[in-house]
């Protein structure tokens, strides 16, 4: 993402990260003129449909790292990730950073996947469909873990940690050279935010088990799983994906699970369980988020 410098250009410009072959850049003005169909607003990111086959995720809280991740996963696995058409940052814009968070807007143009998210459709799925969708997801998660391991914690291509756990970190968001370095920053952020004498306890808890590093989606909730005709059609929202400790996927998926349906039971067969680490993560997030 471009940063704000004293030597900013006097007028906003399009800074292209990616443009798929055969595609043309759709400017912010052209996007607005297309009368986009607003679909959702998630964590400050706006999502709109501008044609039967194209979706746009845009706003100040959208990161080009997500576009990089989508390309990275699509190149290395058979996981159904929406096809990327274009991604760019637009700015600088004349506005207050403290209000908007950035003087740049990011636009990610991607394929619109026909189907329905699993959060809305799970209760209507038959027992066989639930088993089939779970098997599909387990296959894709196995592929994700099979990507050759990196030697750092962070996002693709040596980028920073994008997970919300370091939202309040005042030191570093990485990338981190090891799980231990990552843990040290989490502990430091926890202590600073809790303002209690918990340093030795939190550090001991974080470092009580050794963990490898695997590629992780980082937000594997039913709302991010698109299904169609009883099969998994796409996994979306890759903004928090990257290289994390091997328990991260499980800990995050169950942190947001409310156990209203039997989805959690299926998830236990999809992801390797890390029960103690999940409780640890919940303790951390009770202060860090």
Automatic annotation (TrEMBL):
Pfam families: APH. It comes from Cucurbitaria berberidis CBS 394.84. Residues 66-258 form the Aminoglycoside phosphotransferase domain. SUPFAM superfamilies: Protein kinase-like (PK-like). PANTHER family: AMINOGLYCOSIDE PHOSPHOTRANSFERASE DOMAIN-CONTAINING PROTEIN, AMINOGLYCOSIDE PHOSPHOTRANSFERASE-RELATED-RELATED. This is Phosphotransferase enzyme family protein. The lineage of its organism: Eukaryota, Fungi, Dikarya, Ascomycota, Pezizomycotina. InterPro entries: AGP_Transferase (IPR051678), Aminoglycoside_PTrfase (IPR002575), Kinase-like_dom_sf (IPR011009).
